[in-house]
Amino acid sequence: MDSPVRHTTWTQSYRERASLPQTSALTSYLLRLISIKRTNLCVSADVTTTAELLQLAEDVGDSICMLKTHCDIVGDWGERTVRGLRAIARRKRFLIFEDRKFADIGETVRKQYTGGPFRIARWSEITNAHILPGPNIITSLKLGASQAINAHKAGVVQTEISADPPPDDWHIDDGDDIEEVSPTSTTMPPDTDSHMSDENGKSSSLHLNPDSSADFVYSPIFSSYNRAATGRKASVVSISTTISTRTESISPFPTPEENEDSNLFSDPLIRVGDAPFERGLLLLAEMSSEGHLLTGSYTSQCASLAREHRDFVIGFIAQRSLNVEPGDNFLTMTPGVQLPAEDAMDTNQKLGDQQGQQYNSPRKIVYEQGCDIVIVGRGILKAADRSHEAERYRREAWDAYEDRIGIGCGGSS
């Protein structure tokens, strides 16, 4: 492996990099979140059930900036999984990275990204792809991301149901029960909360789940109940549906630099707010497995394509920083990170598995190779106390970062 060039981003803090020109809103948010939480740790959630996934997110959520998922290995993946994971991510403030590794022609990957049983673009801020099919894989995923963003911005549906008085020539007996009218031919989306307005003045709205895509058509009907046909009091019920467009910015607000003295924003994690509803792509430029072929000109081509799509490509999966040109501010996320056990006698032992995986320490990856986020899987997943182990990795990776930018342990970021 070539020694990485020591780019200016090596000595800049995460917070400084968040404000650099050409930095996307999602990248800026993630860098600020890393700075505030003081964590450059991503945990790889290689688990196979929803219960395991949500428990892991609870266990390590306070120590991470990102959780890496493999939705296609979770046997019972569904809406419950998505809602539970998104709720924990919002509460504990971390992003979700679906490690999908797209590698097909453009139209296929767009459909894989936005549709199918997983609909990744709906719930995962970040995903990744190989460039083996060529540059169109980036533009197609970008198109899919744009469709997901537009669906989210237009994702509020207002529905009102009202009952008009029957015609004067219809006899209505006082005290008759009101017939409950249900639009039985209407297909309701799975992620909705709804109730109806009636003659007693009760009213409500039908809202899409904020994390669901508005890719369905809600077709209300107009119904009337004839007294002769039903034997009940007649009424004319109309349903009107309005789709309103979100007008708020999808960028995070407020920024952590604002309102520093405000009691309302005394908690730094409250100041950073929710993640912007944007999507980002990581290019697989290098891998951590022995004998991988993502080397040389392939890695260089990844970097060149990333520069052409700075608004969508936020960085790389790589073993070293690929920031080499002026203006580069890409994030490097690095798998294959593991620490010896706390009670290990030999802390310099070479770590790996029997399937070609090669491990490096957080210090080597962050301090020596200039990478930004370490990805840890089995080192935390197999620990008896995952919360404790996640904290141990967080401290090691954060100390390496502070040493790299020259402020040492205990300094400000």
Characterization of the model:
This protein is α/β, with parallel strands linked by helices and 413 residues long. The chain has two domains: 8-153 and 250-405, TIM Barrel; 155-244, no CATH class. It has helices at residues 14-18, 25-37, 50-60, 79-92, 106-114, 120-123, 136-153, 227-230, 268-272, 296-308, 362-368, 378-381, 386-405, and strands at 41-45, 66-69, 95-102, 126-129, 156-164, 192-193, 207-208, 223-224, 236-244, 280-284, 313-317, 331-334, 373-376. The strands form three sheets. An eight-stranded parallel beta barrel has the order 1-2-3-4-10-11-12-13, surrounded by seven helices. A three-stranded antiparallel β-sheet has the order 5-9-8, with no helix packed on it. Helix 3 (50-60) links the parallel strand 1 and strand 2 (66-69). It is globular, with a radius of gyration of 26 Å. The relative contact order is 0.16. Mean pLDDT is 79; it is low at 156-162, 170-232 and 237-265.
